[in-house]
């Protein structure tokens, strides 16, 4: 049953490992979980990367359903038709559902490219405006707005009582993890600083008694190793004719006449590959063993994601609304999928979000 008094703040931490959530490194996140609950980790689909993960978070659909199968277009410039799209999810989002219900929403994001991916034009408040970073905005080493640049806009949104749903995205942990490694001291410093930003947001929240704060990440990150990258096209050239690598996962297009079951078995036996599953009728998805990465035109020097080892996410909920403890008990009982949060939010806000793959965490 919808609770029209509820107000939801959903924070997405890009590349933030669930394994670092602790009283020492993330005291504010830890305390937030005490008002609701925290999972040891949540889960996401393969490839465990940014656009498919946040697509699931904001639609409640698995990548097969929302259409964004990989973030690798940032490396390959464009995707072949068989690999889906990276430009925009193909199903309704929470922002569209809010607009249809007459509720106000906000999308404040450190990754400005995701405004197009997540169709945030339906939100009542957007930053950066139209997904275009204003001149003079401080940027990280990958060209995304820094957490400090995002913070004032998120603070204003969280403090705005007219907004029923606020989505905020902080990107810096992903950039530092890629460049220097997720276990490096700069990365740990970034985790602490991100937690401090979350603390400022929690301190600015209004109407705490009706507010739910949900904090998730899109994926974990693993450090690069000396293992040679997996050249899947060479290893399985008799089965596949194209490969789109996404860190620890790869989308492999089947040659005409190749049966999926045969390809799944053979690719799963390639050195460095941990698993292989069907993607759709045209391709399969390979997942690498920990410490292995698929070969690509660009390989990050410090850390990467995409594979089974990084398919774990932050999953913490808190707030003054009584549903916080109910959701907390659910996620502590079993890891939530990123696709579970949207149907849960839809129920809380009285939104219509049909055809979801995720499960309502209030059941």
């Amino acid at each position: 049953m919808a609770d029209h008094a509820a107000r939801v703040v959903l924070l997405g931490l890009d590349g933030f490992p669930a394994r670092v959530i602790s009283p020492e490194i993330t005291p504010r996140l830890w305390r937030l979980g005490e008002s609701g609950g925290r999972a040891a980790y949540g889960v996401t689909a393969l490839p465990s990367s940014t656009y498919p993960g946040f697509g699931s978070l904001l639609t409640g659909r698995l990548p097969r359903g929302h259409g964004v199968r990989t973030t690798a277009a940032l490396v390959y410039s464009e995707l072949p038709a068989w690999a889906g799209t990276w430009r925009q999810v193909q199903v309704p989002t929470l922002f569209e559902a809010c607009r249809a219900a007459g509720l106000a929403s906000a999308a404040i994001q450190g990754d400005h490219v995701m405004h197009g991916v997540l169709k945030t034009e339906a939100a009542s408040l957007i930053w950066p405006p139209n997904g275009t970073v204003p001149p003079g905005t401080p940027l990280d080493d990958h060209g995304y707005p820094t957490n400090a640049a995002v913070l004032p806009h998120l603070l204003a949104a969280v403090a705005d009582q007219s907004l029923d749903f606020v989505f905020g995205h902080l990107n810096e942990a992903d950039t530092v993890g890629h460049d220097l490694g997720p276990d490096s001291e700069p990365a740990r410093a970034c985790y602490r600083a991100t937690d401090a930003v979350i603390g400022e947001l929690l301190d600015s929240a209004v109407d705490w008694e009706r507010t739910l704060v949900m904090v998730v990440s899109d994926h974990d990150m693993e450090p690069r190793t000396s293992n040679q990258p997996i050249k899947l096209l060479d290893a399985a050239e008799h089965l596949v004719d194209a490969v789109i690598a996404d860190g620890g996962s790869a989308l492999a297009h089947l040659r005409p006449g190749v049966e999926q079951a045969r390809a799944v078995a053979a690719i799963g036996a390639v050195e460095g590959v941990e698993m292989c599953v069907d993607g759709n009728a045209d391709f399969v998805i390979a997942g690498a063993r920990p410490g292995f990465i698929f070969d690509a035109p660009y390989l990050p020097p410090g850390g990467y994601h995409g594979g089974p080892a990084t398919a774990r996410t932050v999953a913490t909920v808190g707030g003054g609304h009584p549903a916080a403890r109910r959701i907390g008990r659910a996620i502590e009982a079993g890891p939530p999928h990123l696709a579970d949060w949207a149907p849960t939010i839809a129920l809380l806000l009285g939104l219509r979000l049909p055809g979801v793959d995720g499960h309502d965490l209030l059941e």
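The first strand starts at residue 7 and ends at 13. The chain has 13 helices and 15 strands.
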